[in-house]
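Reopening this one. Same input as before:
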Amino acid sequence: MFEARLLQNAILKKLLDAIKDLLNEATFECLDSGIQLQAMDNAHVSLISINLRSDGFDKYRCDRNLSMGMNIACMYKILRCAGSDETVTLRASDNPENITFIFESPSKEKLAEYEMKLINIDQEHLGIPETSYACVVKMPSQEFSRICRDLSQFGESITIACNKDGIKFSSSGDYGQATVRLAQTAEVDKEEEAVIINLQEPVKLTFACRYLNCFVKAGPLCTQMQLSMSPDAPLVCEYTVGDIGYIRYYLAPKIDEDEDN
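Same output, byte for byte:
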C-alpha cells in the first residue's frame, strides 16, 4: 500500500507546472524515505531531479518500493481539478496498474477521486555525482525569472559570469545586446530579496535560453533559488519545494555539446 497526503495541493500543481514542458512522462520512485524523480528532458539535453521527503507529507505510507510511470500532462490535468484549499492524497496498491488522486474539501463535505493508468517507462537511473562548485549564488526566484525572460529577447543563449564583484547575465543577437549585473547584497531587510555569492573561483559559462526559461517555471515554488556553477560541470538550478524537498535542473554549457550524464 502506498499513500501520500498533502494539505496543500498547490505545491504539487506548481511542481507539475515546473516540469510539464520538459517531460512527457516520468517514473516516480516511491520509497520509505519519500518520493523521487530523475529524468532527462524530451530532447535529452537537461536533467531533472526531484526529491520529496516522507516527513514533509501530512501522511505518508509506503509498504514497499514502487516505481510508477506517469503521463505528466494527464497528471497535471487531474491536479488542476482540485480546489486551491483542498487536500490531495495519492494512493496505490503494492502492485499498481493505476494511481488514485483523492481531493477533499476542508469541510470534508466534498470528496473527489480520479484514477489514472500507470505506464511502463524504460529508463535507467542516472547517477548524479556529488560536486563542489566554484560558484554558488542564492538570489530571488522572481529576479532570475525576469532576467531570463528579458535577455532571451536578444539572443538564443545567456552568458552567466560570476566573480568577486557580483554576477553578470548577458545576451546578444541581431538586434543588439543586453546585460544585467547583480552585486552581492551587503545588508538587506528581507532575506528573500538577498543576493548571496559563495565564490571559490571566477566562472563564465553560456547556456541555452530555451531551457533556462523552462527552469524558471519553478519560481512560484519558493522566493529564493540557487545557481551552482563550475567550469567543467553542468549548471544546477535548484528550487525548494515548500518544506518537503527540492527540484534541481542540470544543464550543460553550450560550449560543451556533450549530453549531461
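So the earlier flakiness isn't reproducible anymore. For the record, The longest helix spans residues 141-151.
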